[in-house]
Amino acid sequence: MRKVKRIVFLGDLTVACNRETLRGIAEYADCHAELRVFFPARVDPDNLAELVRNDVDGIAMGSSPAFWKLPQNISKRKIPAVDLSGEGVDFHMPAVATDNVAVGRLAADYFLDRGFRRLAYFGMTLRRWSELRWQGFDAQCRARGVAPQG
Fold first, then answer.
1. Cα–Cα–Cα angle for 52, 92, 56, rounded to 5 degrees
2. Interval 24-59: pLDDT, tens
3. How many CA atoms lie within 13 A of 69 on its CB side?
């Protein structure tokens, strides 16, 4: 009999993207009897001992600033982990990422192709992905002769 692998999902479940990510991971695990997925309600970002004590085989880290302290602790413990946050922060672990500059360019093209010429970008401060989208949006607008508001 194969050993059951215990995967912990760390992320703020009030964030829709995290809920959908967890749902996808759980659906995958349902098809693979050797996997179990857990999502603790509270985790102390400075103390992984609780997780390690529970024989964790891997960690999927969703978007949640409280968990941004965890990568250093995860790498010290040599726990396999993947960053699913999309924040673009280099945690020195495998990551699932979005090309946010391209997203910004696509958004600019969408509006410019429909004849809009007075454009503005509304983003989120302190979020790297938002800054990258602004860069793509701004560059694409300017390449097409429009100066957007940021």
1. 15
2. 999 999 999 899 988 877 666 666 666 666 678 888
3. 7
